[in-house]
Specification:
- With about 475 residues, this protein is of the alpha+beta class.
- Helix content is about 35%, strand content about 25%.
- Helix 2 crosses helix 6.
- The two termini are about 35 Å apart.
- The mean pLDDT is about 95.
- The structure holds '5'-O-(N-(L-prolyl)-sulfamoyl)adenosine.
- '5'-O-(N-(L-prolyl)-sulfamoyl)adenosine (P5A) binds next to strand 8, strand 11 and strand 14.
- The site of '5'-O-(N-(L-prolyl)-sulfamoyl)adenosine has 19 residues, from strand 8, strand 11 and strand 14.
Length: about 475
């Protein structure tokens, strides 16, 4: 069922060129989230938006369930645990919401609303991990987390309550085992984002911007339609830092005890924001078939005297397509108004059926992304759906990649870099010292995202060159204005 929740909607969407305005309008008009909740940074999912969230997260769950066990840990963390890992608490102290009272009574120990769950989980991991036979331990949970963000909050992008924080936490025996786990997490993220037809860059964050408590952090960044980047996932190698703090040890074959090694990785509601932003167009949402709440909309084009025959074919087709999420829009609205509505909502395939189609035994199909119409024998449509879905996704990915590529340019002088950063991503060679990094960030008024973990084959720049600041050996580095 797809009900209209926002009653008074203004006419058309602004063009996507005005990205910020477009984004705010599309999430309201297409009914993704309601921004009217009276607490800053907290948002409400509409039923329609929640469906998208569900289909997207179902995929993530399916991927995780292959190798991880789902768990649930409480939302409240005692201050004594949260504060144990020095770097970690330093990184989060300005973002934590504290619970200090139960009713009127002050609590003995303040409780933090989880900003992330390392310090909730790892005291228990200490109890769960005894010997090498317990390893690897791979867990995940999809929960809400809270961060008192001081930067500009934005729906699905920077939230104070992240509603669907997918966090995976693992324990391995050795540093190398944990490193393999990081690579395996990256592989999982690739599969997830390929499924959503979203292109990404895999970048190792610089030392000064890694996750608090990590040895290193790898991020997936994508480029939004205004040229700013969005970090859409991270995986962190935690070394034995947390294991030492929380005393997570395992007994080896020879009876000795060693500290374990750990990783964690996370994806948030941002994956939905990227999905909407990158694929959407001036008319509204464009969604891959698998995650579209309405996968197929059938629009009967009724002519006087022919209604019965047309509806007969419509119903036959609906029946044939019952494996999919199909809506027949036989409302009284004009066809133009129906097209507008279903384009806005990102119905993936549209099938039109009028008298001519009945006569010829054919139907007119169009993909939401390119909106080209073509004719298919009515009897074959059901057999073609998977093929259509795959073709549409391929087109969506290619178009998104082309747009992302246009945002990425190499620079060997800082003046031109400065002009570009914010409108797109600048590639430079950088020696990775914090000093040169800081200088570039200041001059370019952006952030050093880091070195490429993998250089995509379409980037035709040498991986090593002269540092743009000091001339020493430099590595291919991305600089951008992130959300
Ligand atoms: C990994 C999971 C962690 O918290 N602990 C468990 C690790 N990493 S992270 O980089 O801090 O966050 C993971 C991803 O969450 C997204 N994110 C947010 N999304 C929406 N609103 C926010 N306020 C917010 N903060 C972080 C980012 O995509 C990040 O990569």
């Amino acid at each position: 069922m797809v009900k209209d929740m926002v009653k008074e909607k203004s006419e058309k969407l602004p063009p996507k060129e005005n990205f910020s305005e477009w984004y705010h309008e599309v999430i309201e008009k297409a009914e993704i989230v309601d921004v009217r909740y009276p607490v800053k940074g907290l948002y409400v999912y509409f039923p329609f938006g929640y469906k998208i969230r569900r289909y997207v997260y179902q995929k993530l769950r399916d991927l995780l369930d292959r190798e991880y066990d789902e768990v649930y840990f409480p939302a409240l963390i005692p201050e004594s645990e949260l504060a144990k890992e020095g770097e970690h608490i330093k990184g989060f102290e300005n973002e934590v919401y504290w619970i200090t009272h139960g009713g009127r009574s002050p609590l003995d120990i303040k409780l933090a609303l989880r900003p992330t769950s390392e310090t909730a989980m790892y005291p228990l991991f200490k109890l769960w991990v005894r010997s090498h036979a317990d390893l690897p331990l791979r867990t995940y949970q999809i929960v809400n987390t809270f961060r008192y963000e001081t930067k500009h909050t934005r729906p699905l992008i920077r939230m104070r309550e992240i509603t669907s924080f997918k966090e995976a936490h693992t324990v391995q025996a050795t540093y190398d085992d944990a490193e393999e786990q990081v690579l395996s997490a990256n592989k999982l993220y690739k599969e997830f984002y390929d499924f959503l037809a979203l292109p990404y860059l895999v970048i190792r964050r610089p030392e000064w911007d890694k996750f608090p408590g990590a040895v290193y952090s790898i991020a997936f960044d994508t480029v939004m339609p205004d040229g700013r980047t969005l970090q859409i996932g991270t995986s962190h190698h935690l070394g034995d830092n947390f294991a030492r703090t929380f005393d997570i040890k395992y007994e080896k074959m020879d009876g000795e005890h060693e500290y374990a090694h750990q990783t964690c990785h996370g994806i948030s509601d941002r994956c939905i924001s990227a999905l909407i932003s990158i694929h959407g167009d001036d008319l509204g949402l464009v969604l891959p078939f698998e995650v579209a709440p309405v996968q197929i909309v059938i629009i009967p084009v009724l002519y006087k005297g022919e209604e019965e025959k047309i509806m007969e074919l419509v119903n036959k087709l609906k029946e044939k397509l019952s494996d999919y999420r199909v809506i027949v829009d036989d409302s009284d609205e004009r066809p133009g108004a129906k097209y507008y509505k279903w384009e806005l909502k990102g119905a993936a395939l549209r099938i039109e059926i009028g008298p001519r189609e009945v006569q010829e035994g054919k139907v007119v199909v169009s993909f939401r992304n390119e909106r080209k119409k073509f004719s298919v024998p009515a009897d074959d449509v059901d057999k073609k759906i998977e093929e259509f879905a795959a073709e549409m996704k391929k087109q969506m990915y290619e178009s998104a990649l082309e747009k992302m590529r246009a945002f990425i340019k190499y620079f060997d002088d800082t003046d031109r870099l400065e002009e570009w950063v914010g409108r797109g991503v600048g590639l430079i060679h950088l020696c990775n010292s914090e000093e040169c990094g800081e200088q570039i960030e200041e001059e370019a008024k952006g952030s050093v995202l880091g070195n490429f973990e993998e250089i995509p084959d379409w980037i035709d720049v040498e991986p090593v060159g002269e540092c743009i600041v000091c001339g020493r050996k430099g590595y291919l580095t991305a600089v951008a204005k992130p959300y």
